[in-house]
C-alpha cells in the first residue's frame, strides 16, 4: 500500500489540535470542497465569503472523508466521523500543514507569477517536468491565500518537482505566499495592464510581482521575460533579494533562452530555440506566439531544476490548454460545424490581444466568419474605457468579421466598430445569449473572452448546448 499523504500523528504535531474519534482509513489527500470528497480525504472547513465549511463537514465525512479539520465541533460531525479540532481558524491549520509539507519535501520547487500566462505556463511546465520525475502542481488557478497552502499540503512526500502558481490583486500579497513555498526557481512571465484599479501604474505592478524573488532559496534562480520593458527593473529586484543567477527568455536577441525560429499553426507551434547555449527544436501542442514564448520559460526552469531538457522539450508536443484558456472544440451545426475557442477564464488587454491573435490564425472555411465574443475586462481603473476602445487594433489585425460584446465597458469598443461588423451588444452576458446563438452558422470560428466577473463561461456552455460537440477523431 502506498504511504499515506498524512498520518494522524503528524497532523496532531503540526496543528497542535485535538482529535475527536478514531481515524479508520489512510489519509491520502486534502480538499476544501465537500462536493469533490473522495475516500481518505482530509476535509478542511474553510470559511469563505458566502459559505462556512463547517456546515459541510458532516456530509463530507459521510461521503468518505477520512478526517475533518475544524475549529468548532458539533454532535452532527462527531456522529459522522473523526474530526481534528484546532484552536485557530482551519485555514491556519492548513497553512501549518503546508509549511510542514514543504519542510519534509526534497523536491525541486518553482514558483510562477506574471500578469498574463501564469496558469498556461504552469501547465506546460507540469507536462515538461513529468517526463523526468513525479511532478506536483497546483490545480486550476489555486494561487491565493488558501490555494497555495492547499497545494503545499497536497504535495506527495516523494515528489521530484513542485510547481506553484502565485497570484495577487494588491501589493504585499505575494511575499507571504512565496515565503511558504521557498522555491529554487522563480518565474515572471510578463508585466501587463492587470488589476490597475488597485495600482497607480505598471511600475507598481512590476514591483508587486517582483516580491516573488523574496522567497527564493539561497543559490536559486530568477527567470524573467527579456521582452518586457520592465526586465531591468525586475532583474534589479531579484539582485536586491540576493539572487545572482538571472536567466532571461523571449524573442529579444540578448535573451539567454530565445526563439530563433517559430512556425505558427492553428493548433500548435514548431519552435527552434537556444536554451542557455543548447539548440532545441520542438513541437508545442498549443497555438500562438505568446505560448511559444512562455514555453521558453518552461525549458529554462526545467533545465535549472535539473530535469532532462531533451525529454522536457519532447513532452511539450502533448501540452494542452487549461480550461477556459484556449481549449478548441468542434461543434455540430446545420450544414457543417462551428469551431469554438474557449478563452473565457479571465481577461486583461494583453490576454485579449493574444486570444484575438489565436482567432486570427484560424482559417474559417468558405462562408465562415471569425467571431469575437468579448466581455468586460475588470479592475483596470480609470484607464478602463481607453483600454477597451484600444482593442480595435488587435481586432483589426486578427481580421475579426463580427463582434458580440457584453458589458458597459465593452461599449467603448462597440462604438469604434463599423456597423457591418456588429453582431450585438448587451449589458450582461446573459442578455447577449439569445442574439449570439441566433447569429451563429456553420463555418464560424467563435472565440469567447472576458474577466471572470463578466461571466463569459456560461456563454461557452450555451453554445455547446445548442451545438453539441462532435466526436473527437481517434
Summary?
This protein is 32% helix and 22% strand. The model has no long low-confidence stretch (mean pLDDT 93). α4 (90-104) crosses α6 (147-153) and α16 (429-439) packs parallel to α17 (457-466).
Descriptive overview:
It is a single chain. The protein has 474 residues and is of the alpha/beta class. The protein folds into 3 domains: 8-89, Udp-n-acetylmuramoylalanyl-d-glutamate--2,6- Diaminopimelate Ligase, Chain: A, domain 1 (3-Layer(aba) Sandwich); 105-318, Mur-like, catalytic domain (UDP-N-acetylmuramoyl-L-alanine:D-glutamate ligase, 3-Layer(aba) Sandwich), CATH 3.40.1190; 327-466, Protein-Tyrosine Phosphatase, Chain A, CATH 3.90.190. It contains 17 helices and 20 strands. The chain has helices spanning 8-15, 57-62, 75-80, 90-104, 118-130, 147-153, 174-181, 202-209, 231-240, 289-304, 309-315, 349-361, 384-389, 392-397, 411-414, 429-439, 457-466; strands spanning 18-20, 29-31, 41-44, 67-70, 83-85, 108-113, 135-137, 161-165, 185-188, 221-225, 245-250, 257-264, 269-275, 278-284, 327-333, 336-343, 370-375, 402-406, 422-426, 445-449. The strands form 3 sheets. A 9-stranded mixed beta sheet has the order 7-8-6-9-10-11-12-13-14, sandwiched between helices. A hairpin with a 2-residue loop joins strand 13 and strand 14 (278-284). Helix 5 (118-130) crosses helix 10 (289-304) and helix 16 (429-439) runs parallel beside helix 17. The longest helix has 16 residues, at 289-304.
